[in-house]
Amino acid sequence: MKINHLKRYLIGIAMTGFLALLAGNAFGDIATSQNASRDFDSTKKSQFANNYMVASPYWQVEGGASYTFIAVSHSSLSGMASQIGVTINAITSAKAAYDTAETFTISAGNTQRVFIVPTNHATVNSTNISSAVFLAGTTDFTYGHLRIGPPVGTYPQLKYGGMLGSSTVSAGFRDPTMLTYWGSVIIEANTTGFAMEFIGDMNDSQTLGKYATQATTYMASGVNLQ
């Protein structure tokens, strides 16, 4: 009886150690020696993780009854590149793209307007508002969520235009989570609406550290802020 108890005890210790090893590998690149990272691979500069994304849980369009308006602003704060690229996707509740993703660049101190509307909207369209970005779909009533991130081929985790800690003019991070987002679902019948929520924008960001050689001093931001 004592031998059986001892066997079960040793097996339990072995299984616990095995599961701990798996968990360590799942949550970090080198979990035993540094803070866990959600970047896919720090050696591949073209890849980026969810902590460079911004999300909004709800948008809506309904013929001539409602549409969605979003403002994306570059506050020109220290650490931001003078121009930051953004790619915005409107995903429907059916898990499909409402329209082809739109990519645009925002310069320091500027605001970019974005509208999500049906293609046949009489007044809110690219002809009447030529400076805005439009995501226009053919479905009359649709709702879903937004996913906003950097354009393909950019490196939001790397400082652009200078080394970390330098005072190079216009140098900074081209990270879309450092921008400010505001939005509303507009109810056209009575010119009212309700505000949208954005997760992962500049309010979730931390300032840069002093030493680039220390992994923990890099900016952490976005929906998976550590």
Walkthrough of the structure:
It is globular, with a radius of gyration of 23 Å. The termini are far apart. The protein folds into two domains: 36 residues; 170 residues, no CATH class. By secondary structure, the protein is mostly beta strands. It has one helix and eleven strands; from the N terminus they run αβββββββββββ. A five-stranded mixed β-sheet has the order 6-5-2-10-11, with no helix packed on it. Strands 1-7-3-4 form a four-stranded antiparallel β-sheet, with no helix packed on it. A two-stranded antiparallel sheet has the order 8-9. It is 12% helix and 31% strand. The C terminus is likely disordered.
Please tag this protein with its features.
226 residues, mainly beta, 2 domains, 4-stranded antiparallel β-sheet, 11 strands
Give the gist of this structure:
The protein has 226 residues and is mostly beta strands. The chain has two domains: 1-36; 48-217, no CATH class.
Provide the structure class.
mainly beta
Unreliable segments of 5+ consecutive residues: 6-11, 13-38, 205-213, 215-226
Q: Report how far apart the termini are.
A: 48 Å
Q: How do the strands of the widest beta sheet line up side by side?
A: 6-5-2-10-11
Order of helices and strands: HEEEEEEEEEEE
Rounded Rg: 23 Å
Q: Percent range for helical residues?
A: 10-25%
Q: What coarse outline follows from CA principal-axis ratios?
A: globular
* Average predicted local confidence, pLDDT: 75
- The overall number of domains is 2
Report the sheet with the most strands, covering strand number, pairing sense and barrel closure: 5 strands, mixed
- Helices, by number, come to 1
Roughly what fraction of the amino acids lie in strands?
25-35%
